[in-house]
Automatic annotation (TrEMBL):
Chain ranges of the Core-binding (CB) domain: 92-173
Family: Belongs to the 'phage' integrase family.
GO molecular function: DNA binding
Keywords: DNA integration, DNA recombination, DNA-binding
Highest taxon of the lineage: Bacteria
InterPro entries, per the entry: CB, DNA_brk_join_enz, Integrase-like_cat_sf, Integrase_catalytic, Integrase_DNA-bd_sf, Integrase_DNA_bind_dom, Integrase_recombinase_N, Phage_int_M
Residue stretches making up the Tyr recombinase domain: 204-392
Keyword tRNA processing: no
PROSITE patterns the UniProt entry points to: CB (PS51900), TYR_RECOMBINASE (PS51898)
Name used for this protein in its record: Integrase arm-type DNA-binding domain-containing protein
Keyword DNA-binding: yes
Amino acid sequence: MAKLTARGVETAADGLHADGGNLYLKVVGGSRSWVFRWKRDGKVRQIGLGSVKDRSLKEARELAAKLRHALLNGEDPAAVYARLSGKGERIPTFAEAAAMLIEAKRPGWRNAKHAQQWENTLRDYVLPKIGKLTPQAVTVEHVLSVLRPIWTTKAETASRVRQRIEAILDYCAAHGWRDDYNPARWRGRLKALLPEPSKVKRIQHQPALPYVRVAEFYRKLTERPGMAARCLEFILLTACRSGEARGATWREIDFETKLWTIPSERTKTGKEHVVPLSEPALALLRSLPRMEASPYVFFAPRGGMLSDMAMTATIRRMHADDLAAGGQGFLDPASDRIITAHGLRSTFRDWAGETTHHAREVIEHALAHQLKDKAEAAYARGALLAKRRALMDDWARFVTRPAGVVVPLPVREHAKMTS
């Protein structure tokens, strides 16, 4: 095999050109850089050694020789390169690298919501399992330990989690903190180990409580202490998403107009959503303590935002306590699974659609759903606030009614769309 020459480095065509000793010249368009490639566990791995502008052929060969020596001694070339290239005295953990990537990408993201979504999914699913590992230590088995529990039950979330792990590990490889072998990559990696996302990406209905039991659930919820229980009350009374309630700040609440305005960067649709607040919802807000150092309405013990797991844990305790007291627990009869905070939105939707006179577009707008029909969507952007307030007031009366009391509501009429 002919070795590279200084002239050859300058004139080589696009592609990967071997120099020997695991050193390669990578040419892509006008970019020319050095690559160190090796095989481990039957897989080819590589790390970048910098641009030819920054490192001469002689310097690249000297560095490659050191990495080859480390490889023969059983060391990790990526870790050795990070140490030799002065990229810091220590390699960051996966969690630290994730935070660096988010900060690097933040200026280019459409809004703050995108960064928050990254942080939330990493916090809830990834960092507890692999956050303390160095990037090079993350293996396929580690990635699978994150994905398998949610791959079929939360298909959309799982796909995003996989993509984010892959992006973080690519970021680490670009900085020399690990080799180029990415265990989170779909093609050639996880595709052989997990079912296709399209096969599991069917609608996964969140376990929901039958609306006939919602008042019972509400009464037992109000008896429980803790901010997570209060947040669940608010979710139930407003039919909002868990993340919207957990991230609510006092600046978003207007007690005079009785409105909660969720800014566009915190909504799933990317559009501002205004929620009419019923009297029970307002009374709940007025009863809450405030933490001077925290902007959140429903703050965690240290002032940050409550986690989604806090909501889940509260419902699970309620279920267990109800069973222990001789009750039915709080299961979705269709799936026999414990209900979820998100499932309370389905409870509201079933109640509104099956027992009330409120028009479908009003109900869908209350849930901040995007309407597929353009004419209907245009109508929904009109003066629906008063109609949605009436809907939420009806819902609050139904939820907060005393035991044994039936709330009379008009039989639902099939309202025609306004042209």
